[in-house]
Write a structure and sequence with these properties.
This protein has about 450 residues and is an alpha+beta fold. It contains 12 helices and 24 strands.
C-alpha cells in the first residue's frame, strides 16, 4: 500500500539552523504536495530575512519556544478555514523539547514532553534507564561547584567525561588516571563556559558533568521509528573505526551491520527496553550502543532522526512496488498517521557514509580532489559542507564535520572501502588562527 494523499496538509519543521538536513525534509514534504512552515533559532530582530515566514524561536528556552509555536499556529489557523499544522518534526537535539511541548498542546502525534526532557539530559536519562534495569555504564555526576580532584576519588578508571546536554561527541573525553581526569574536567568546563555554547544551549549547558565508566567493545548506531510505543529498527550502523579515545569523533557508518545474529539481537532487545523505559511513544529515534561479550550497552537515546546528511545513506521500500523512499519522507508520513510506513524496510544494497573528520582546528580555505573522490568505484556522492573562511574546530571542542562521503555496494566491506579510498583523495587546507593582542588589556586572543 502506498502513501496516503497528503496534498495541502502542513508540517512544521523545527531546526536549530537552516541547513542541508532542513532542506532534505522540506524537499520530502514538497514531494508529498505538502506545505512547510519553519521554526528556527534565527535572530528574532530580523524581519523574515529569507522571506520564508519562519518563526524565530529560542530553543534553549523550551517552554517559551513552545508557547510561541502554539500561539503562532493558532493564529494561522484563525486566519483561514484550515487547521494550523498537521505535524511537527524537530531536527537535531535543541528543538526536541520545544517540539514535544507544542505537539502535546496541539494534540499532534509525538512524544510526551517529560520523556523528551529526560532524554535531553544524559544524567537523567542514565538514571531512568538504570532504574528500569537497562544495561548502562556505571556513572557519577560532577557538579559545577565540585573540585575535580575530589570527584576523582569516587570515580573509577578508565572513565569518560562528558557534558550532560551536548551532542555529536562534543566535549567527550576519556581519562585513564587522576591527572587526565582533572584535565578533562577543566577542558569540558571551559567548553561549557564558552559564549557559543551558552548562546546555543542556555541552561542546558549547565556546569554539571557526567562521568561514566569506559565500556570496551565495538560501537554501533541504531536508527529507528517508534510507532505507538513499538520500536521499528530501520538500520543498525557499524562504526568500523575504533572509538577508544581520548576523543570520540565519529567518522564512518556502514549498514547492514556485520555483527553476528546474537549481537544484533542484543542490540535490538536493549534498544526496545530503553525506548520503553524512557516512555517514548511516537517518532524517530537515534541511539548509540557499545557491544561486547556481556551484550549491548546503551550510550545514548535521542528522540530525533540521524543528523547531518547521514540520512542519505538510507532508502526504503516495501517489496511490492514502492521504493526509493527517503528517511525524511518516511518520518513525515508517520507523523501524519500513514500506517503503511510500518511495512517499509531498508533497501538491500550495502551503504556507507563518512562524516569527514577534522584533522585539526583552523580556518577552512578549501579542498582539492573532489572529482577524484567521486570517481572511486561505489562512491555516490561527496558533499563538502564546511564554508570557506569558516573556523572549524576539531574534537572535543568541535561538533561540525568538513562534509560527507557516500557509497553503495553489494557488501558492507566494499561500501566501507569506497568511502575510505575517496577520503584518501581529498586534501583540505586549514589555516591556523593568528594570535591578536587586545588593544587595551594586551591579553592574547586567536583570530581566524
Amino acid at each position: 500500500m502506498g502513501p496516503l494523499d497528503f496534498r495541502g496538509r502542513r508540517v512544521l519543521i523545527l531546526a536549530s539552523k537552516m541547513g542541508y538536513q532542513t532542506r532534505a525534509f522540506a524537499e520530502a514534504a514538497k514531494k508529498l504536495d505538502m506545505e512547510v512552515i519553519f521554526g528556527t533559532d534565527r535572530c528574532h530582530k530580523l524581519e523574515d530575512p529569507w522571506a520564508d515566514g519562519a518563526m524565530a524561536l529560542h530553543f534553549e528556552r523550551a517552554e517559551e519556544a513552545a508557547r510561541e509555536i502554539v500561539e503562532s499556529i493558532r493564529e494561522r489557523a484563525g486566519e483561514g478555514e484550515r487547521s494550523g499544522v498537521d505535524a511537527i518534526l524537530a531536527l537535531g537535539d535543541a528543538p526536541t523539547a520545544a517540539g514535544a511541548r507544542a505537539a502535546e498542546e496541539l494534540g499532534l502525534r509525538g512524544n510526551a514532553a517529560g520523556a523528551v526532557a529526560v532524554c535531553r539530559n544524559k544524567r537523567e536519562q542514565r538514571e531512568v534507564l538504570r532504574a528500569a534495569g537497562v544495561r548502562v555504564p556505571r556513572f557519577w555526576a560532577v557538579g559545577a561547584g565540585d573540585k575535580a580532584e575530589d570527584a576523582a576519588k569516587r570515580v573509577e578508571f578508565p572513565c569518560v567525561v562528558k557534558p550532560v546536554a551536548l551532542a555529536a561527541s562534543q566535549g567527550v573525553i576519556r581519562a585513564n588516571d587522576v591527572g587526565e581526569f582533572v584535565g578533562a574536567v577543566k577542558r569540558v568546563r571551559e567548553l561549557l563556559g564558552s559564549p557559543e555554547i551558552q548562546v546555543a544551549h542556555g541552561e542546558a549547558a549547565s556546569g554539571e558533568i557526567l562521568v561514566e565508566e569506559y565500556v570496551a567493545g565495538g560501537e554501533v548506531a541504531v536508527e529507528g521509528l517508534i510507532i505507538d510505543g513499538a520500536l521499528k529498527i530501520l538500520a543498525i550502523f557499524d562504526k568500523p573505526d575504533p572509538l577508544e579515545g581520548p576523543f570520540f569523533e565519529e567518522s564512518i557508518y556502514v549498514t547492514p551491520s556485520r555483527l553476528g545474529a546474537r549481537e544484533q539481537a542484543s542490540i535490538r532487545e536493549c534498544a526496545e527496553e530503553a525506548v520503553r523505559a524512557l516512555g517514548l511513544r511516537n517518532g524517530p529515534v537515534h541511539a548509540e550502543f557499545r557491544v561486547n561479550d556481556e551484550g549491548a550497552w546503551v550510550l545514548e537515546v535521542a528522540p530525533r532522526p540521524i543528523g547531518g546528511l547521514c540520512a542519505r545513506a538510507l532508502r526504503f521500500g516495501d517489496g511490492a512496488g514502492e521504493s526509493g523512499v527517503s528517511l525524511e519522507e518516511l518520518l513525515i508520513r508517520h507523523a501524519l498517521g500513514d500506517g503503511s510506513v510500518a511495512s517499509l524496510e531498508r533497501e538491500q544494497d550495502a551503504s556507507a557514509v563518512m562524516m569527514i573528520p577534522v584533522p585539526r582546528s583552523g580556518g577552512f580555505e578549501g579542498v582539492r580532489g573532489v572529482e577524484e573522490a567521486l570517481a572511486v568505484c561505489g562512491v555516490t556522492g561527496v558533499e563538502i559542507t564546511a564554508r570557506v573562511k569558516d573556523f572549524i574546530a576539531a574534537w572535543p571542542e568541535g561538533s561540525s564535520y568538513l562534509g560527507f562521503i557516500f557509497a553503495k555496494a553489494s557488501t558492507a566491506e566494499e561500501a566501507e572501502k569506497a568511502v575510505r579510498e575517496a577520503h584518501g583523495k581529498l586534501e583540505f587546507e586549514l589555516r591556523e588562527r593568528l594570535p591578536v593582542g587586545h588593544p587595551v588589556t594586551g591579553k592574547m586572543y586567536r583570530r581566524g
